[in-house]
Every structure is written in structure tokens, then in C-alpha cells.
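hey team, just a heads up i'm posting the complex here instead of the shared drive bc the drive is being weird again. everything in one block, sequence lines first with there labels, then the predicted structure for the whole assembly after. its two chains so it's a bit long, scroll down
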Amino acid sequence: MKGHPEEGLLQAYLDGEVSESEHVRVAGHLMGCAACNRTLDELGGLAAIAGSALAALETRRPDVEAARWRVRREAATRRRRAEATGWGAGLRRRVAVAASFFLLFGVGVAAAMPGSPLRSWWDAREPAGSPVVSAASAPEDAAGPTEVGVGLELRDGALDVAFSAVPAGVGIEVTLVDGDRAAVFAPEGAHFETGSGRIHVEVGTVRVEAGSVRVEIPRNSINGVVRVNEAIYLEVVAGDLSFPGPPPSTTGDVIRFEVPAAGTPGGTDG
Amino acid sequence: MNFDELFDDLYPGLHRYCARLSADADVAEDVAQEAFVRLLERKVQGEPARLRAWLFKVATHLIRDQVKIRENRWRLLEENPVLPHAHAPPDEVVERREREGMARRALDSLDERDRTLLLMREEGFAYREMAEAVGVQSTSVGTLLARARRRFGKAVEEIEGESLKERIHEGAS
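-- predicted structure starts here --
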């Protein structure tokens, strides 16, 4: 090797990022070069300092399962949106609009022709009164409703989650999570209100699917309550968890409640 | 390896990298998850090592965009310190926060490329993958990494020196 290897090559040598032939050349040079050995030692020392200092940047352990769930849900939501607004959907809409236009045009022409049955029907229709408009229900999304959610950073460990207008039979899932953030998810259309340590969700008449009403509560919450239709389902008092409402089923950190029918304990009486 | 296995294997490291790079626990969570959502959306295929490099590259770019918008990282860190243990004794907590604060300040004193190179190397990436993430030739990575580590080491030294001076000053007054 002519001359000293550049610092970058020594760094790559140190990191095991050189080819076999380069390794042999650098190693050969280091055998007889005190200056490059000093540089190599210095680079090794800097790597150790960096490793040790960066290790101090501890991060909170993520809740991998919850994160995976959110990723899958978000990907599914975007896929549905893309399908609903994509080229195929646009084409279908245009075809439907064109078909409606031609149908109406055809009906109009037929009705305008003297002696046509449509013309007779039109002439015989009841003239008085305003037209009756029937309330058509919005077409349902075949892929199911999307979910929305709100998150809340808990400063003092206290949390109040209240659901209202939840129909009987709906499952509500509460998950204990790491960190200081609470979150509530409900089907799109639910009405959210948040305040300091407080989340209120009015589910109303939105379509609710199994597992689509969910709450995430920090494991280290000090005081908290989850109410459904004004009945307390879950309570945390000074860090102790209890279920004053309908008995839940639990799997690991997931607690599941089912909203009972009106008249039963904890049920929807109002 | 299916998606769930891949996620469970790679998410903690990606989350740690994002938290270190962004200094914001919420940004880290959002970015790490967004990278995986894009992996699913774009149906990226390949060996786990390739997918890992792809995820880190996407996350690096996402954080770069976030940082451009939000230049209040230090304030956020102070407001939301990222703590690994909730019930550590107070002295330990104070000491750990000090160490973390010094490391964070030293890291923040570097430019974005130096930070990315340092953190990617800490996560065990090869020069080729680091080069791709920061947009340089892989033959330049050794030089750039050596410089980044030197700058970082110097910053750590200076910040430690300042902290020591402050303590001496506090003790004397």
C-alpha cells in the first residue's frame, strides 16, 4: 500500500466493511505504521463513546401488538378509501350517471308522445299537494364503516371515558397499554368530545361492528373510569382496577364488555 | 416470514431508531407505524433484511419531513421525557435524564445526515444500506461516519464539560 490509508478506509476496516483484498492491504500497512494504529485506536474510541452516549437515549418500550393492530387497520382503511375513489369506482359512477340520464331521457320522450300509456298516467296523476319525498337510507359501504379515534396524553394519570347512546349487544374492548396515552376508537360517524383527561363519545345510530368500539388505557393510570350509557363499567381507583358494571371477559391485557339490553343490570335503561 | 412475524421482529428497532432520531415519542410511534402501513400499501416484497432497510429509509425520510415542520424538538423532549422505567428511584431518574439530555443535545448539534448515519450504524446497518438512506456513495460512508463520530464525541465532551462547570458553580454558590 502506497502512503497511508484514508481515514474513511480505516473506519470501514474497523467496521468490517472492506473487501477481503482491502482488508489484507490495510492490515499489512497497520503492521508497520504507528500513526495509522493511533488513528485506528482513536476511531475505535469514538465509536465506543458514540455507542455509550446513544445508549443513554432510552426509549419507552412500544406496545408491539397494539401498533400492529393499528397498522393493519390503517392499511385496510386506506385500501377501502382507494377502492371507493379509484378509477374503477369512478368509471362505475360515470356509467351509472350516463345510464340514469338515458333512462330519464327515454321516459321523457315516451311521456311526451300523445297516446302513450306514460302520457295517460302523467295526465291522470293527482295534482294537489306537495310531492312526497321518502327518506332514502344512505347506501351502505359494502366494506364496512371506517373507524375514527382520539388520543389523549394523560398528565396526571386521571382519565374519564364516557360512551353514550351505545346500543345493546355492542362489544366494548378495553386494552391496557404502556405509555401515558389513552385512546378511544369508534365507528366513523360517532361524535367525539375531549377535555382535560376526558373523552366523551356519542355512538348514536352509527353502525357498530364487533370490536369497533375500543379504549386504550395506560397501564399506570392512577384514577380512571369508563362509563357506558352512564353505567360504570371499569374503574381505576389509586391504581386498582375494578368492574362495577357487567362482568367482562379478559384475555391478557384486553378486557371485553358487552352492553346488555335495557332492564338488565348495567343495561340501557334510558 | 409473514407480516405479523416481520412486524414483531422489526417494529421495536424501528421505533427505537425513530425515537432517537426525532426526540419525540409520539412522532416515533406515528412514523414507525406509517412506514409499515406503506409497506403493506405498496406490497413491498423481499427478504427481511431488505424490507428492514426499506422501512428505515422510509422512516428516515418521514422524520426529515416532520422535523422540517416541527422545529420544537427540544421543547417537546422536555415536556414529554421518554422514560423507560416508571418507578425508578428519583436519583436514578435524575441521573438518567441528565445523561439522556446530554446525549440528545450532542446528537442535535449534528446535521441530519450525521445523525442518520450514527443511528443507523448503531442499529447495525451495512454501509451500503446507510448510503442508500442518506443518498451518498457507499464508498463515502466510512469517511462520513468517522467525521460524524468525531463531531459527536466532541459535542459530548463539550456538553459534559459545561455540565461539570455548572455543578462546580452551583456547589460554590
